[in-house]
Design brief:
The complex is a heterodimer of chains A (about 140) and B (about 375). Helix content of chain A is about 5%, strand content about 35%. By secondary structure, chain A is mainly beta. A five-stranded mixed beta barrel of chain A has the order 4-5-6-8-7. A three-stranded antiparallel β-sheet of chain A has the order 2-1-3, covered by helices on one side. The chains are: A mainly beta (about 140), B alpha/beta (about 375).
């Protein structure tokens, strides 16, 4: 059966967001220096990841940065084989959730593993990579 | 509290619907629902339109749908709860009547997902969570979110890829009996297991398709419902809940806590237990999601979802038949329409109008379970003949 006719609109719309990061700048700066830090509420002690200036537990606005170290344990993972549009030029990647110190969990790529090789419970290490634009981001590797 | 019933239903053919735009697609369901009810359009005080949007050209679907069906003037809004937008629209319509804002309301769900290319659709759904922390650098996809749950469930409870394939086989079996379903062909476990990996361990046949479709229901207050129909289906309980945007903030990955809480609230409001449910639709955007739903809805104990599918307990003739319409997997998953489509299915089951797919409904009680995102939102609706 032939496809029904459609009006192939060519009025394109480019969405490019300028995302405010002023309140979490310290995280990205520290990461650039090789430290993985996050926010700890000065009032109730709640440690949050992703970092946030305002405490989701007590709503307090005072916080300090704490270093979570680089060691992690694999919680779960997946190998992505059908990527979204903006990742189609990227090599196939593995996404994992790892647990760091203070019970903080983090989602990031897990590099250097294949198939059913990753096992929940496996020891991981956080490493810093830089995007094509030079921005730091974090990945897991097998420890 | 005043009682509210579903008094009319409409449902479009699901699939790749390049023959209709969003207004025309919604109209197919709106017209059926109005015709079935015999209600005057002027008597429909408010219209709630569930649609996630972003993949079709109209940013204001509520007014586009309203204009096309001659419903302009009704109170209206677009309702968004990701893939649970339909159930959210149903809840909003229910609330409008309970609050005394009119005797009749309509809930419409509609989505047109195939007007953009597939990678763009994949991108739009993949961004649905925490864009900044889980998409920007890591390219999450919707299958990947659920694959993280699948791996954890497999690791904790011994659930297998074959168990998940069985869910797909069941979905296609009932989809083959649903003339409105996107896929109406039976598949085998071997075929499902051998399909392309999209986000290991999830394969093409573990995943619902991208779908265009619509569904609509007319709701009425108790007094008006009895004038309009001899077979009202009452909304006995609605529970809804939510979870964190970031998956990294969840305590575990073997169930959806939003479903557990939504179910608790719905059962409590309806004064029923999971054992009272005759027939259900469960949110099977991925096969693992249906197995977790069995557990989170209390149909079985945590970790025993795979056993339920192995034992055929959720088949027609089983203890609690689930997704006899083919589920999201085979019927299709037009995001905003899905929750309403599920309500239409359970309404038909409770009225005894499901034909070859009819489940026995001894208690006259059915359940709709609709999840938004990866358990970011969850809605559970209990429907009853009484």
């Amino acid at each position: 059966m032939p496809e029904p006719p459609t009006l192939k609109s060519r009025r394109t719309l480019t969405l490019r967001f300028d995302i405010p990061v002023s309140k979490t700048k310290e995280f990205w700066d520290s990461l650039g220096e090789g430290r993985f830090v996050t926010t700890k509420c000065s009032k109730c002690g709640k440690v949050s990841f992703p970092p946030q200036a305002d405490c989701p537990d007590c709503l307090g606005g005072a916080f300090e940065w704490v270093d979570l170290g680089r060691e992690a344990t694999l919680v779960t993972f997946t190998h992505v084989r059908v990527p979204p549009a903006s990742f189609t030029q990227t090599d196939p990647y593995t996404i994992a959730i790892g647990e760091l110190s203070r019970g903080v969990k983090v989602l990031a790529w897990l590099e250097g593993v294949r198939g059913e090789e990753p096992r929940p419970g496996m020891k991981l290490r956080v490493e810093v990579r830089r995007s094509a634009e030079g921005r730091p981001y974090y990945v897991f590797v097998q420890a | 509290m005043s009682r509210v019933a579903i008094v009319g239903t409409g449902h479009s053919r699901f699939g790749r619907r390049t023959d209709v735009n969003v207004g025309e697609l919604a109209f197919e369901s709106v017209k059926q629902a109005i015709d079935e009810t015999g209600v005057g359009r002027k008597d429909i005080r408010n219209v709630f339109v569930g649609s996630a949007g972003g993949w079709y050209e109209e940013p204001l679907p509520a007014v586009v749908v309203g204009e096309y069906a001659g419903l302009s003037g009704a109170g209206t809004m677009r309702v968004e709860a990701a893939c649970a937008s339909g159930s959210a629209a149903l809840k909003a319509a229910y609330n409008s009547i309970v609050s005394g804002d009119g005797e009749v309301a309509m809930a419409v769900g509609v989505e047109k997902m195939t007007e953009v290319d597939t990678p763009t659709s994949v991108e739009l759904i993949g961004r649905a969570g925490s864009y900044m922390w889980e998409f920007e650098n890591y390219g999450m996809t919707f299958p990947a979110y659920y694959a993280l749950y699948a791996v954890a469930h497999m690791n904790r409870f011994g659930t297998t890829e074959e168990d998940m394939s069985r869910v797909a086989v069941k979905a296609h079996h009932y989809g083959s009996m649903n003339p409105l379903a996107q896929f109406q062909k039976e598949i085998t476990v071997e075929k499902a297991l051998g399909s392309q990996v999209v986000a290991w361990p999830l394969k093409l046949y573990d995943a619902c398709p991208l779908t265009d479709g619509s569904a609509a229901v007319v709701l009425a207050s108790e007094g008006v419902a009895k004038e309009l129909t001899d077979t009202p289906v009452w909304i006995r309980g609605v529970g809804y809940s939510s979870d964190t945007a970031n998956l990294s903030r969840r305590s575990d990955y073997v169930g959806l806590s939003a479903t557990v809480e939504a179910a608790k609230r719905a059962y409590s409001m309806a004064k029923v237990t999971p054992q009272d449910i005759d027939v259900a639709t469960a949110h099977d955007c991925f096969t693992i999601a249906e197995l977790m739903a069995y557990e989170d809805l209390g149909f079985c104990k945590k970790g025993e979802g795979a056993k339920m599918i192995r034992d055929g307990e959720t088949e027609l003739g089983g203890r609690i038949p689930v997704n006899l319409d083919g589920g999201l997997k085979a019927k299709g998953h037009p995001i905003g329409a899905t929750g309403i489509s599920m309500a239409v299915e359970i309404t038909k089951q409770l009225r005894g109008e499901a034909g070859r797919r009819q489940a026995p409904t001894r208690n006259g009680i059915g359940l709709v379970h609709n999840v938004g995102g990866t358990g970011h939102y969850a809605y559970v609706t209990v429907l009853s003949r009484n």
